[in-house]
Specification:
With 663 residues, this protein is of the alpha+beta class. The protein has 23 helices and 22 strands.
């Protein structure tokens, strides 16, 4: 994909997100002038961009949306749920076409039906007012498309003081799609002059029926010549021939000769919107840049190589005792750490990039289900690593859809329970040093502990004895068990029991954790605790037989020799008691199926922090620690229990990194 096409796709995707959210604001408050101006401006921008890139059907869809919004803005049509559905359907078509363009450069979506429905809604109007408005518009601009006498128009605009009225006859230099370039010419004209009227009117100029030539009636109170005005238009690459008349109907001088004074040319340059904008851009410092994702990933891979190189250097130094090389390595480490921080910052992306369409999702589902929901997002400007955000998009969508489908009750049910008919769902992001918390909370019916216990037994997830001893937090964790669901019937939104387990796997896969809190009748809160950046962490290397594994040091509380601990048997399982708490003792050799594993008294025991998991791990030996890059598995190995990823050591050896929570 070319740079221009890539930029077009990215900007269009961002505009569609803006349009969706602004439409939601408009639906919520039809009297909001800010909302209607935003949606109109963004729709107009999309129409122009699609047209410039040659995607006529997409441009026509955006044009239909813009026309309907124009009627709403002018008070000719009211904001209704049905009209908003039509607009949202059109926006969905635009989004689908942008995605198709991104994939193969062409569009397959056919928007004609949606366009026809929008046009029909415009024509139907509100109580026939639309027909009257159209008649008024035609009377104002000249229904026959002929020019308006300058003297007549001068009387209408009531010229005062030094104001001058001009008519510029403009020939668009684009035979294939003159209506597209006409929009850019009009935008530039509005920036420089007071555009009183065009003949033909805007509807014709922006349609396929436009023939390429139009009159622009300009009002200005500055001293200009015909050369100034013609020079302004000739600066544009969209315009061919231009002629200008003044209010006195005298034909004024043509464009300045090439030998005219340079000062006049400078004035023409200044009057050009594109020239002044370019000059302004050139004199400003670049405070932000657009970075290609592949380049960032390549840079990150280089950082990984530097980390590996540092490990190699350290081993060489340990073997040869080179004091001077040790100093050099220390400096190398500082450089690597600085580069690492810089790259990680480059990769950070705001949370709103993946949750920007959530308000629209909530709106559509709640409308389908007849629910009233106030959806709020806070703290979505916090930034996280791009790769982590990409993984979180679907899990967060699961949580939002479940909150709408399962959490929030119907308006009648809420009212019967003494609650407001409108439910509330919040998505809240917070940054806590190197971790981020993302919470989805609702004020719905909450989770019923006993119902979950019964379903767990009924579905074979737990025995009656096991379910009976679970505390509330452990019961809530059952909703993440594969295939588990409390929903009696499957809906199009959720209820298949295949969503929450995916949420759990993905969050664990990026070194995160999940906490569920709920109160029956009051609501549910699900919090994801996640790292800000990808995992470059310090690990403890342990041997299990002839194999080596890594355990993140942040998860370790204590390391002991096996001969120094007291092992007891509880229900046939080995345990260790520490500070009155009983810790199951897991043999890594058995759980990892390590061949030729010979347990002995010289084994080591690693006690994991209570906050992570109440467990001890038995291994053959502890052989050192190092800061390493952890690469998560992809494909069929993704989400494998007990393993969070792998790291490549200095000698090229691949070491598995243990996930002690799922081991």
């Amino acid at each position: 994909m070319s740079d221009a096409m890539s930029t077009f796709v990215q900007e269009s995707q961002e505009d569609i997100r803006k349009l969706n959210n602004a439409l939601l604001d408009l639906e919520d408050d039809p009297s909001s002038s800010d909302a209607i101006e935003t949606v109109f401006r963004v729709a107009h921008n999309l129409k122009g961009n699609f047209g410039v890139m040659g995607y006529t059907e997409a441009s026509n869809q955006a044009h239909a949306i813009e026309d309907l919004l124009d009627c709403i803005r002018d008070g000719e049509l009211a904001v209704t749920g049905e009209r908003m559905d039509l607009i949202f359907r059109g926006v969905d078509n635009l989004e689908a076409m942008v995605n198709e363009i991104s994939a193969d450069g062409e569009t397959q979506t056919n928007p004609k039906e949606a366009i026809s429905e929008i046009r029909a809604s415009i024509e139907a109007g509100d109580d026939g007012d639309e027909a009257v408005a159209e008649a008024d518009d035609e009377a104002e601009s000249g229904a026959d498309g002929h020019e308006v006498p300058l003297e007549t128009l001068a009387d209408e605009v009531d010229l005062e003081d030094e104001a001058q009225l001009y008519r510029a006859v403009i020939d668009i230099d684009n035979e294939d799609a003159p209506h597209v370039d006409a929009m850019f010419v009009l935008d530039a004209t509005n920036d420089e002059y007071d555009l009183v009227r065009t003949v033909p009117g805007d509807d014709t100029l922006e349609s396929d029926e436009f023939g390429g030539v139009f009159d622009a009636y300009l009002l200005t109170d500055s001293v200009v010549t015909a050369g100034d005005i013609e020079g302004f238009y000739e600066e544009s690459r969209y315009v061919g021939d231009v002629s200008v008349e003044s209010v006195t109907d005298d034909v004024l001088e043509g464009p300045a000769d090439e030998s005219d004074d340079a000062d006049e040319q400078d004035a023409d340059d200044d009057s050009s919107a594109s020239s002044s904008s370019a000059a302004s851009q050139g004199s400003q410092e670049v405070e932000s840049i657009r970075v290609d994702v592949d380049q960032v990933d390549q840079l990150y891979n280089q950082v990984e190589e530097m980390v590996t190189s540092r490990i190699k250097l350290r081993k060489i130094i340990e073997e040869h005792d080179l004091v001077e090389a040790e100093d050099e390595l220390e400096e190398h480490g500082k450089i690597t750490a600085s580069l690492q921080d810089t790259v990680l910052e480059i990769r950070l992306v705001p949370l709103k990039k993946i949750v920007g369409n959530f308000p629209r999702v909530v709106r559509d589902i709640s409308r389908d289900q007849g629910k009233e929901i106030d959806f709020q997002m806070d703290g979505v400007d916090i930034e996280m690593d791009r790769s982590i955000l990409n993984e979180l998009s679907d899990p967060l969508m699961h949580l939002i859809r479940n909150a709408v489908d399962h959490g929030i009750e119907s308006p009648d049910e809420r009212e019967a329970n003494g609650k407001s008919r409108e439910g509330t769902i919040k998505l809240i992001g917070e940054r806590e040093r190197d971790r981020v918390s993302i919470t989805v909370e609702d004020d719905g019916k909450g989770l019923e502990v006993e119902e979950i216990r019964e379903k767990a037994v009924e579905q074979g997830v737990k025995t009656e004895e096991e379910a009976a001893v679970l505390d509330d937090s452990e019961v809530y964790d059952l909703i993440f068990h594969p295939g588990f669901s409390t929903t009696e019937e499957v809906t199009e939104v959720s209820g298949r029991g295949v969503g929450m387990d995916v949420v759990n796997q993905v969050v664990r896969g990026v070194d995160g954790s999940i906490n569920v809190e709920s109160e029956p009748g009051e609501g549910t809160s699900i919090t994801l605790m996640l790292p800000v950046s990808v995992a470059i962490v310090r690990v403890l290397f342990v041997t299990v037989g002839n194999e080596t594994y890594g355990v993140p040091i942040k998860n370790i509380d204590e390391i002991s020799e096996f001969s120094d601990v007291s092992v007891e048997s509880v229900e046939g399982r080995p345990t260790i008691t520490h500070d009155g708490n009983v810790f199951p003792l897991l043999s890594l050799g058995e759980h990892l199926d390590v061949p030729e594993m010979n347990p002995g008294e010289d084994d080591m025991v690693i006690r994991i922090k209570d906050s992570v998991r109440q467990v001890c791990l038995r291994c053959s030996d502890v052989v050192g620690q190092e800061e390493v890059v952890i690469k998560p598995f992809e494909g069929i190995l993704s989400g494998a229990p007990g393993i969070s990823g792998a790291s490549v050591l200095g000698e090229g050896e691949v070491v598995m990194i243990l996930d002690v929570e799922t081991l």
